[in-house]
């Protein structure tokens, strides 16, 4: 007696720039279909190619697999894995590949799906092309978008993912340690999984993961290292600040995406956060606290109608843990000193753009002036 029919459509496309999510979901669906159909004839075709010739070979193997009846069961699942020629790159745009995909689209529209399931997993997919539209019409399409710093709730989504992964390993983590973990890794789920595995091995049989474990073993990505520069500024720790600046300037030699202007904008954002927090404290919207959960609860009660729409000036658009870590730093500066710091950073910005002075020296001089408050700015002038 044949197994029960698969409950889902016989054709599925799993795609998106979240490669971890795509691979996990595609693997799950492949295993589900194999169990539903039974037999041993299921095929996986590697479709990660380097040129149009390899793409045509993969498509030929796919068409052959679809038309080869199963020998040892009542059905078969074919998985076109890691397909790299469904986007808009040179390989995908090659005439031979485009024509072959069009032929395959026509075949799929008349294909008899009683004993066959087709699964396609891909990163980049051009939704304007007819092949995608065919897959969308005949089957199901699931898209997994990667987390991004532009996503207001990326930290919450990353925390949810981390908690799920940790509980699968029978580990628990404190809220503050979880926030530190996510803040160190950023919106990168694959790296987050790697760090979670490292943490699990590091704590061994101990079920609870604490802040000192995260700080001891978790790798800090570029974003977290940039936060270290801002934290040293917030702590008003000149030796640490200059060390962090030297580290950033050194890395800049090997990373063309970094620049002195970029570092400066990060420092401006830090001072802006301190000004926002000082204003929220003055308005009594929040109160000083050493408990992360209490602080988050205070943010949830902020009067949204009194907050600006511009994300740069809206505290709710800032990572809650970043705000929490900056909260004790606010008392290290007066309001006038923060206004002065913003003015010094803006002056540095102009000098970086229009002068020929050494950029690293300009940054150092500006940071020294901020921490030592050497150039007061009258409140009336700041206003």
Describe what this molecule looks like in 3D.
The protein has 383 residues and is α/β, with parallel strands linked by helices. Helices cover 57% and strands 8% of the residues.
Tell me the layout of helices and strands:
Layout: E1 11-15, H1 19-37, E2 43-46, H2 52-67, E3 76-83, H3 90-93, H4 95-110, E4 116-122, H5 130-138, E5 140-143, H6 154-168, E6 172-173, H7 175-185, H8 189-203, E7 208-209, H9 211-217, H10 222-234, H11 238-252, H12 260-282, H13 292-300, H14 320-326, H15 335-354, H16 359-372, H17 379-382
Parallel strand pairs: 1-4, 1-5, 2-3, 3-4, 6-7
Helix pairs in contact: 2-4, 4-5, 6-7, 6-8, 7-9, 10-11, 10-12, 11-16, 12-15, 15-16
Main β-sheet, spatial strand arrangement: 2-3-4-1-5
Question: What's the CATH topology name of the largest domain?
Answer: Zinc Finger, Delta Prime, domain 3
End-to-end Cα distance: 83 Å
Q: Oligomeric form of this entry?
A: single chain
Total domain units = 3
Q: What's the mean pLDDT score?
A: 86
Radius of gyration: 27 Å
CATH architectural type of the largest domain? Up-down Bundle
Question: Mind describing the biggest β-sheet?
Answer: 5 strands, parallel
The number of strands is: 7
Strand content: 5-15%
CATH C-level class of the largest domain: Mainly Alpha
Element-level helix/strand string: EHEHEHHEHEHEHHEHHHHHHHHH
Put simply, the count of helices is 17
Given helix and strand content, the structural type is alpha/beta
- The backbone outline, from C-alpha atoms, is elongated
Low-confidence stretches: 1-7, 374-383
Specify the helix fraction band. 55-70%
